[in-house]
Specification:
binds NADP nicotinamide-adenine-dinucleotide phosphate; 11 helices; 7-stranded parallel β-sheet; Rossmann fold; single chain; 40% helix; two-stranded parallel sheet; 295 residues; alpha/beta
Length: 295
Amino acid sequence: MIDVALKKPGRPVIGVAGATGRTGSYLTSRLLNHSVHVVALTRDPNPQRLPEGINRAVVDFDDPNTISKGLVGVDRLFLAQGTSPDQVRNEIAVIDAAVSAGVSHVVKVSAMGPPTRLHPFDWHMEIEAHLAKYDIGYTVLRASTFVDILINRAAKAVVVGTWGGAAGDGRVNLIDTRDVADVAFSALLDERHLGTQRAYHLTGPRAVTMQDVADELTHLLGREVLYRQRTPSEQRQILIASGTSEMVADIMLGLDRIFHDSVLSETTDTVLQLTGRPPRSVESWLTENLSAFRS
Ligand SMILES: NC(=O)c1ccc[n+]([C@@H]2O[C@H](COP(=O)([O-])OP(=O)(O)OC[C@H]3O[C@@H](n4cnc5c(N)ncnc54)[C@H](OP(=O)(O)O)[C@@H]3O)[C@@H](O)[C@H]2O)c1
């Protein structure tokens, strides 16, 4: 929680719900180098997961009082909670508390995609609809699938030579979470966004198939990497046998279906428009993270 007495005029207080996460941690590191106050709203009482010097509010997202306390003095809010069945309830509670606390602008990470029953797309639609009930400023960042998912979905399996899935030859325009964070940075700090109500569709520079990813890994690793084509039921059996929960298996298979049908294959220029530079490519992300794919 920020000490309101220490607030400096002209330096907005940015609340970050999700500061220990993929997008939130990169955003937080950028904000800390800027002349703003940052408050991380986190469930974690252990300060080691956050950069030194950050204001920290330990929050129980099921207890609105703790959220309200954490938001005292906060002017603008970034919201990106990890995927869980609690996400709708918890993000809605944060939005409600933010409005009551007088937060003037909310930047929410959402998911690009069609109206669907698939999680987490339906969860984000519900949260967006709730946000739309309020007359405050907000920027909804409907991001395509994060390239970072390849760590969980592919890296270990690539190492042991069993990577595969039900994505077929479908294409997806994967985005680097740092690009999502860079757009969030602009939406939180550029005065032109403040008070507006906008949704942006964020993608990487071009769509790829899983076989394209395998081919790039083959090139980078100097050994053949295969993406084995499986049916959804074969993939489900493999996921469950490896200890994946039913809920996570459903989410992963839902994503495979979205990839298979090339639902997220469009390319937008939003990252370029809002940050002034093109989005990072899958190839450069693979190069930077190659050690995770090495045996
Ligand atoms: N993965 C994708 O391809 C993709 C694509 C588009 C949109 N999205 C959306 O992006 C958001 C996730 O962004 P991210 O990857 O940056 O987040 P993340 O790393 O998965 O998690 C962000 C933070 O959320 C906090 N959190 C609070 N309650 C949680 C709960 N019940 N379960 C898990 N985490 C919880 C955690 O922080 P504390 O422990 O500090 O509280 C965590 O560090 C999700 O809403 C997701 O649907 C994802």
